[in-house]
Amino acid sequence: MNRSELIAQLRSQRQVWNLLLLEAGEDRMQEPLPGGDWTLKDIVAHVSAYEDWLAAWLEASRRGELPGQSVTTMPDQDARNAIIHRQNRIRLVEDVLAEAGWVFDRLVKAIFALPDAELDNPALTAWYVGPYWDETTPVWRAVAGDSFEHYQEHIPQIRRWLDEKS
Questions:
Q1: Please, where are the H alpha helices in the chain?
Q2: pLDDT digits over 97-133, tens only?
């Protein structure tokens, strides 16, 4: 996948995500979702945390560095998600949504800065992919997993919740 295709896919899936959030409405974003104590606001903050880390990771790679330590890279996924949840629990819906917007813009900008050759050539990127994913993972796949594929992980739960509420 080249840069233009990745950004087009990311923007397309983000539009689906944003329309779902718009359907829910800000006034319902603090209602608990079925099966737990997370709200839609919590899920938006959770997804944004991963996208923010992706942007920092890509930006660091342009400087020939790895990003600093982050809760999003802890090996225990349940533990890291619990920490992200606790960190964002008391935040206002407006703040979480605003942050989600600028984090997404930051991620797109970071992708624009990548050479096309690095998106699908693990031999060029193993030094910065390997510490977080299998070193043979293409950069585009790493980005997809923590952005638009991440939306797809949460959309079914949100859709069920919206359908139950209507």
A1: 3-24, 40-62, 77-88, 93-112, 116-119, 122-129, 139-145, 148-165
A2: 999 999 999 999 999 999 999 999 999 999 999 999 9
Burial class (CB in 10 A: 0-12, 13-18, 19+), 43: buried
pTM confidence score: 0.96
∠ CA 84-66-15 to the nearest 5 degrees? 50
Positive or negative: CA dihedral 21, 101, 138, 2 = positive
Radius of gyration of the chain (CA): 16
Q: Which domains does the chain have, with CATH numbers?
A: 3-165 (1.20.120.450)
Nearest Cα residue to 43 out of 11, 89, 12: 89
CA–CA separation, 100 and 80 (whole Å): 19
Q: Which residue has the tokens 């739960």?
A: 157
| CA atoms of 50 and 145, how far apart (whole Å) | 10
**Structure-block tokens of residue 72:** 């999003």
CA nearest 135: which of 124, 117, 122, 116? 122
